[in-house]
Amino acid sequence: MKIRTEWESELLGETVAVARWGEVGVPILIFPTAGGDAEEIERFLVIDTLAPYLEAGRIKVYSCDSLAGRAMLVQEGSPEHRMRLMNRFQEFIYQEVVPAIRTDCADPDIGIMTAGSSIGAFYALAMVCRYPDVFTHALCMSGSYGMLRFLKAAPSQTTDDLYFSSPLHFLPELDGAPLKALRERFVLIASGRGDAEDIDESFRVAQLLERKGVPHRMDDWGEEWDHDWPTWRNMLHRYVDELTREAKLEAADAGP
What we know:
The protein is of the alpha/beta class and 256 residues long. The protein has one domain (2-249): Rossmann fold (3-Layer(aba) Sandwich), CATH 3.40.50. It has twelve helices and eight strands. It has helices at 40-43, 46-49, 51-55, 67-74, 79-104, 119-130, 148-151, 160-165, 167-170, 176-182, 199-212, 229-254, and strands at residues 2-8, 15-21, 26-31, 59-64, 112-117, 135-141, 186-191, 216-220. Helix 6 links the parallel strand 5 (112-117) and strand 6 (135-141). It starts with a strand and ends with a helix.
């Protein structure tokens, strides 16, 4: 059963929709592609793919409108405006969506998994790297991680908003307690090599995580898998079982 809610975000100054499928289980926040909305994953049959896990009570799936991605698609405002919106969108997830998920799960401390494909993979990675106190695992599929080309910005235009919201920018310098917390998390990176895929972006992220000592795995799906929904549905079907089992084991090990 789907439940759709929306509210006026204080951080974004716009009405944002959040959808949820499932009643119990490990919460997974799936980010849309580019400027997709909260129900994109239903239209592209991701929910049908995950139906066995939903019906078994293994997972609860959440998704939300991608306002920052939408701004990039239509080239809203200046590059600096789009960078600011990207940063605020991540803050919105942490400050507004996370409390809503935890309230819905009736658990104020529950860990949340992230997932996404293409630009959605960028957000899945960014949220775990930036907020490891909340997000436990990231499933990054066919990721696009270098944001400057989507922002239509030159490297000289990089702002603090981009730096703090882009793992390729802030992760190399991450240290101390934030890095220690991130080293308790896990990132699964997967990409094909077919049409419109750029697996080098995924290898770049894997190499960065390796240098920082962050647990991760990089899976190469090969030439037959394109940058498209059939690939991502197959990836989700394969990986959700693995990641949710791992999440439950970690929760059991943590104890009360």
